[in-house]
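re: ur question from earlier - yeah i can do the single chain one, its not a big deal. heres the input i used so u can compare w yours
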Amino acid sequence: MNFLAHIYLSGDDDPIKIGNFIADSVKGKQLKSFPEKIQKGIILHRHIDSFTDSHSIVKTSKERLHKRYHHYDGVIIDILYDHFLAKNWAEYHHTPLKKYVNDFYSLINNNFDLLPDKTKYMMPYMISNNWLYNYRTIEGIESVLIGMNRRTKNKSQMHLAVNDLVKHYDDFNNDFTEFFENLRIFSQEKINDL
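and the output i got, formated as tokens:
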């Protein structure tokens, strides 16, 4: 899953949200350098990624993309799934998306010193371009995919995936809806276990 889903799946616990959000920038033993609740968020992120990568519905979504994007198919699906979460946000959360996203940006800014350097570097771009809120539109997703393609020095061709999103829109939406319900249950159980 991508940023918005990881934040959402953390529930209402701010330190778990922070940990879940920064987890990709935290490697191995670096985990122990964070407060305990943030460590729980990092561990939750890792469980979410493992569950997602091995799920049959996600594999079906990836198959629509694999021929063109190969090992980038999973990254693309994570981004596309965040689109469907943002687009259908009112079905998942009582707080409007714009407020939820702005509250999260405030949380991150108020805890900026805790962030890994990689996340500190990324945050001004995320906030100024309002990535999380703009996931709700196809244009917003296209912008993210263009940026991801640029980061791979145009090897991934991810910028083309917006065409696949449009072509298979209903299929991806159905995949997301079915999968995300499973993931919500799984994540809540993991939070309770942690």
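The chain has a mean pLDDT of 95. not sure if urs matches, ping me
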